[in-house]
Task: structure prediction
Amino acid sequence: MGVAITTRQAYSEVDEFLSLLSENLRNEIPRKLRDFFKEEKDNSYVKNIDKNIPIKEQNLKEETLAIIAMLNLQYWCKDEEEKNRLQRIYNENEKKYQEQLKEQYNPDNLFKNRTSDAIQETETLNENVAMVEYKENIIKRFINKIKSILKNN
Result:
């Protein structure tokens, strides 16, 4: 299965981001990984990243930002204390994201609205439906009585 278009576009953004870095920072990332981004990127997708604008304001894809964050943690961040701080932040963000997904797709919540609507609908139907006593007319009762007598004999 191939790589999704948005992922390829993110690789294009990462590749362009890496090309803007100094040679020292770029060389801290393994050559294989840099080549991977070059090979797998979407060549038709062009994102012009401006060095003078902060990365937050570049309108980069979330996937691109996640890859850059991973590169920062793995290769550029040398201070252990800073690494630990970043890992805590990433873990907290992941927990919040998972809780959000859990709440959004919780089976109890998915059916909660449906069951309350169904209960209200059933109650409405019960109020509208009344028992009707069905009485046979005299001729039918007489014929049924004769049939039952004949069956018993």
The CA atoms of residues 62 and 87 lie 18 Å apart.
